[in-house]
Amino acid sequence: MDDHSNEIFSAVLEIRDLLQLIAKPAIAARDKKSREELRKVVGNSKPKAKAVLLMNGNRAQADIRRESGMQASNLSTLVRQLAERKLLSGDGKKPKLSIAIPANFFEGGASDE
Prior knowledge:
Strands 1-2 form a two-stranded antiparallel sheet. By secondary structure, it is mainly alpha-helical. The chain has helices at 3-30, 32-42, 46-53, 61-68, 72-84; strands spanning 88-89, 96-97. Helix 3 (46-53) packs across helix 4. The chain starts with a helix and ends in a 16-residue tail after the last strand.
């Protein structure tokens, strides 16, 4: 890319980051019920929380299982429970959360915003 294209690309990325920052409270309000359901499914389980945070649509269940330390049957059950509550998009082979959550979503006292 030439310098002009780099400047435009950089400006677009900066605008995107600012829009995401402004939109966080609105997204949290829109997804409040889904986030509550997600917390119910995960509970206090650290492996489940880690697995959910890895569900970005790029990892297969085997990869998520390996990275989160969950047993295969437990991960399959988790994926099924999330799918039943419509918290996943696409198929369950490469699960992807249908809502956006911050990286600290499952930490004690973390806010939804």
